[in-house]
């Protein structure tokens, strides 16, 4: 079974407007409310690929009810820990004709008793399970919380996927995650360097492998992705043609597509293909993509061995 953990789920309030003017009243031309948070997005796309999974994490308040309800409506298995105080956050995603701006909320305080409940859920995982840790760690939890969770399941051979930024990602590498998915900007930031060529990316991708990551998937937005696979092969994928509606969740969809592709075929090339199709399908859609939208793009993905 695949378990996703979203420590700080959100309602993504996705709006369109022609222009965003700071210091003025701005009015939107379209608005949508979606259940969000990186782990939750991974769960939604896994579900589209027919891969059974369970979404874990903390929810609270009326916003938490919306998140849980909308996942249930889509047939996604959830086992969220409900906090008695506070509200799951609302993240505003503003798409204008030129930019995408995001304002992400803080989220509720998570008391120690509730953290213990999450550890009890992790106690049940075995070597047949995959644990996906995705998204930021809320301010009320310690920065090393992902490391703590990985340490907790370490002896049981659980496959762990981590999609997080900077130190959160670097610090988990000693626990040998099965997959990490930084984007090219995050790699540059992690190592404090400027990346201008594919060779640069490969150099730092290999550094992440040397530090412990088993598979490193580097996404590059509209420029596709590179996979440095555990078997030593390196692959590059293109992106299909399409109009970007809202790229929020594209990275999470790529992670989910990769996991689904690997579960189905045990082949890294196929996993990258399904990951790339899933990422682009979400970029071309207002919400995270549907199975039909993803399948329509799979044939356009060209995976090349470097
Ligand atoms: N503009 C785009 N056109 C086509 N495909 C895209 C575009 N942006 C993203 N994708 C697809 O989604 C994948 C992941 O995108 P990206 O590199 O933006 O991830 P990310 O930075 O983690 O995204 P996010 O944080 O917005 O979820 C890309 O490798 C590509 O396959
Ligand atoms: O604040 P975090 O946890 O870093 O990111 C949260 C978030 O921006 O990530 C998802 C897209 O990747 C959205 O659904 C959600 O709003």
Automatic annotation (TrEMBL):
<keyword id="KW-0418">Kinase</keyword>
<comment type="similarity">
    <text>Belongs to the carbohydrate kinase PfkB family. LacC subfamily.</text>
</comment>
<keyword id="KW-0547">Nucleotide-binding</keyword>
<comment type="similarity">
    <text>Belongs to the carbohydrate kinase pfkB family.</text>
</comment>
<dbReference type="GO" id="GO:0016301">
    <property type="term" value="F:kinase activity"/>
</dbReference>
<protein>
    <recommendedName>
        <fullName>Tagatose-6-phosphate kinase</fullName>
        <ecNumber>2.7.1.144</ecNumber>
    </recommendedName>
</protein>
<dbReference type="InterPro" id="IPR022463">
    <property type="entry name" value="1-PFruKinase"/>
</dbReference>
<comment type="pathway">
    <text>Carbohydrate metabolism; D-tagatose 6-phosphate degradation; D-glyceraldehyde 3-phosphate and glycerone phosphate from D-tagatose 6-phosphate: step 1/2.</text>
</comment>
<comment type="function">
    <text>Catalyzes the ATP-dependent phosphorylation of fructose-l-phosphate to fructose-l,6-bisphosphate.</text>
</comment>
<dbReference type="InterPro" id="IPR002173">
    <property type="entry name" value="Carboh/pur_kinase_PfkB_CS"/>
</dbReference>
<feature type="domain" description="Carbohydrate kinase PfkB">
    <location>
        <begin position="8"/>
        <end position="290"/>
    </location>
</feature>
<keyword id="KW-0423">Lactose metabolism</keyword>
<dbReference type="InterPro" id="IPR011611">
    <property type="entry name" value="PfkB_dom"/>
</dbReference>
<dbReference type="InterPro" id="IPR029056">
    <property type="entry name" value="Ribokinase-like"/>
</dbReference>
<dbReference type="InterPro" id="IPR017583">
    <property type="entry name" value="Tagatose/fructose_Pkinase"/>
</dbReference>
<keyword id="KW-0808">Transferase</keyword>
<dbReference type="Pfam" id="PF00294">
    <property type="entry name" value="PfkB"/>
</dbReference>
<keyword id="KW-0067">ATP-binding</keyword>
């Amino acid at each position: 079974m695949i378990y996703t953990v979203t420590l700080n789920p959100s309602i993504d309030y996705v709006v369109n407007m022609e222009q965003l003017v700071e210091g003025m009243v701005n009015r939107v031309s379209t608005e949508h409310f979606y259940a969000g948070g990186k782990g939750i997005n991974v769960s939604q796309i896994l579900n589209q690929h027919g891969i059974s999974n369970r979404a874990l994490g903390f929810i609270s308040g009326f916003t938490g009810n919306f998140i849980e309800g909308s996942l249930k409506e889509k047939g996604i298995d959830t086992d969220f820990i409900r906090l008695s105080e506070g509200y799951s956050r609302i993240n505003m995603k503003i798409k204008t004709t030129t930019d995408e701006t995001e304002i992400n909320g803080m989220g509720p305080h998570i008391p120690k008793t509730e953290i213990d409940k999450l550890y009890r859920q992790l106690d049940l995982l075995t070597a047949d399970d995959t644990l996906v840790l995705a998204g930021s760690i809320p301010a009320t939890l310690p920065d090393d919380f992902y490391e703590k969770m990985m340490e907790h399941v370490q002896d049981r051979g659980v496959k762990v996927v981590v999609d997080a930024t900077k130190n959160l990602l670097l610090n988990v590498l000693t626990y040998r995650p099965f997959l990490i998915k930084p984007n090219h900007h995050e790699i540059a930031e992690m190592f404090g360097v400027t990346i201008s060529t594919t060779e640069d990316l490969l150099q730092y991708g290999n550094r992440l492998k040397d530090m412990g990551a088993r598979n490193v998937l580097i996404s590059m937005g509209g420029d596709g992705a590179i996979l440095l696979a555990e078997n030593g092969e390196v692959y590059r994928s293109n992106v299909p043609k399409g109009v970007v509606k809202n790229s929020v969740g594209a990275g999470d969809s790529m992670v989910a597509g990769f996991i689904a592709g690997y579960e189905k075929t045990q082949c890294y090339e196929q996993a990258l293909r399904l990951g790339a199709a899933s990422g682009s399908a979400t970029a071309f859609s207002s919400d995270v993509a549907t199975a039909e939208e993803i399948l329509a793009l799979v044939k356009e993905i060209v995976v090349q061995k470097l």
